Amino acid sequence: MKTKLFVAVFLAALVGFSSCSRKKDPPLSKACDIISITGTNGTWSNSGSDYTGIYCKSTNITSLSPTITVSEKATHNFSGPKDLTDWVTVTVTAENKKDTKTYRIKADTNQTACP
């Protein structure tokens, strides 16, 4: 009888300790920012949530595929090539799939020849 009682107490303690030591998964990230936009022969800058790329004059900005880097584990809906002569909306979705931010991107050319 003492053996059964000992085993029952031991198992209860073991279950109790194992549930206390179980680590919870870290919360999913809420970060949903554009970190940078890059493109060959282009320079990108932003003002708030609007990003503008300036490309050399011979670049066809009606068919651009800039690289958009976003927050770690976030995703974006931009896939190129796209006509960036007018504003294009890009949505960045956080890892938690609940938080989103909307950005606008557009490209223009200057009078500088391509290298």
Name some characteristics of this structure:
two-stranded antiparallel sheet; Immunoglobulin-like; 115 residues; alpha+beta; single chain; elongated; 1 helix; 5-stranded mixed β-sheet
Walk me through what this model shows.
The chain has a 5-stranded mixed beta sheet with strand order 2-3-7-6-5, with no helix packed on it. Strands 1-4 form a two-stranded antiparallel sheet. The protein is built from 1 helix and 7 strands; from the N terminus they run H-E-E-E-E-E-E-E. By secondary structure, it is of the alpha+beta class. It has one helix at residues 2-21; strands at residues 34-38, 42-47, 50-55, 67-70, 75-76, 88-93, 100-109. It has a domain at 34-109: Immunoglobulin-like.
Give a brief outline of the structure:
This protein has 115 residues and is an alpha+beta fold. Helices cover 17% and strands 34% of the residues. β2 and β3 form a beta hairpin.
How many DSSP helices? Answer: 1
**CATH topology category name of the domain at 34-109:** Immunoglobulin-like
Structural class: alpha+beta
Characterize the quaternary organization of these chains. single chain
Radius of gyration: 26 Å
Distance between the termini: 89 Å
- Overall mean pLDDT: 86
Question: Based on CA inertia axes, which overall geometry fits?
Answer: elongated
CATH class of the domain at 34-109: Mainly Beta
CATH architecture of the domain at 34-109: Sandwich
Query: What series of H and E elements makes up the topology?
Result: HEEEEEEE
Report strand %: 25-35%
Percent of residues in helices comes to 10-25%
Largest sheet: 5 strands, mixed
List low-pLDDT spans: none
Order the strands across the largest sheet as they lie in space. Answer: 2-3-7-6-5
DSSP strand count? 7
